[in-house]
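[job 4417] fold queue: 2 targets
>>> target A
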Amino acid sequence: MKILIIACGDLGTTYKAGEKLRELIGGDLGDGKMKYDLGDYDAVVMGTNVRFGKFNKRFYKNLKKIKKVDKDLYIYICGAEAEKSEHYVDAMRKEAPLAKDIGYFWGELDASKAKRMEKYAIESFITGRKKDGLAKPRLLDKKIRAFASVIKGEEN
């Protein structure tokens, strides 16, 4: 099965998750700005970040293209709040009801890649989580491996 992985993120975490997936399932990896011919692929894996409660705009643009063709679709989400994973997965099911699986990998926050207000917001968010006794966001390799197994048909 030939797989296209499209990682639509802003600060690199969604792409990093895409790299980890590619190591496990193979395929071609690119960001949401790349040009591709969907006819070359059997399945599409799309990743999006969550920024201030919303999915990435490039994700929506690419999803629109993919909805027009008959391809197996898998979606992963990278967000900073593991405790809201069900909320984001449910929201994505409404956006992409034909997706075969939707995974939530949690995510990393790197304020050094952000600019001005976004940088301040990320630093404040991390500080707030620490004060509240919550873990700093990170990619969950276990979730990525489980998602890859579903794509490869090893689990339902």
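>>> target B
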Amino acid sequence: MGFKDEFKKYVPEQERRCAVVIHSASAAAGAAAAASVIPGSDYVAIAPVQVAMVVALADEFGVPYTESAVRSTLYAALGGIVGKSSASLLLRWIPVYGNVVRAGVAASVTQALGWTVVKKLQGGAKLI
């Protein structure tokens, strides 16, 4: 029995499994953003976490995905968020406070992206 089967055994409801995936990815993205010392470099650490989250959610719903589909979903979702997070870029230069801001923004953006993907997949949409 693989990890996926064990996961489904212990968390039987699909909505809860999605929540576990999204919350785990948000925590990882927040930690990656807080650990980055150069403002703006946190996007390099956060992107793989968000890609893995989208792939896990697509797998949860049994939706086939390709690299281009995952990439286009991320770009579409993050397009509107980049403008909002760029306003806090200046605050990120402040030591300690900047790390807290980066972690909060990364976790919030990852949560929003995850739940947006879940709602899209619940409606029967594809990752295109």
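[job 4417] complete. Note on B: The CA atoms of residues 84 and 107 lie 14 Å apart.
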